Task: structure prediction
Amino acid sequence: METLEFEDGYTIIEKGKQEPYVYIIKSGKVKVSLGTYETLLSEELPDVFGLEALIDEPYTETCIAVGTVKVIRCEKNEFKDIYVKTEVGKKALKSFMKRTAKALGWI
Result:
């Protein structure tokens, strides 16, 4: 687990790429694109992205830094061990499901 900082416009994760990392926003904002759907994530919840890593699948979203962003990057096993049974893990799953449902036009 490590804290990383990205500058405005940096692509943190790219749709179709497969990596073992889940990201938790520590400060700043991240634009998430899933098809034609776009939304902003921030540290307020805290928001999490890259959950596909938990099931060894390629990312379904592209996530780009908006301004300077600090994130905690976790290996999938670290995220599972530390966050899955916490409010952070529950909120992460809920947020991801909501983004996906909106992108698919379900809500």
Remarks:
- The CA atoms of residues 7 and 55 lie 28 Å apart.
- The beta strands are 2-6, 11-13, 21-34, 37-42, 48-49, 62-75.
- The longest strand covers residues 21-34.
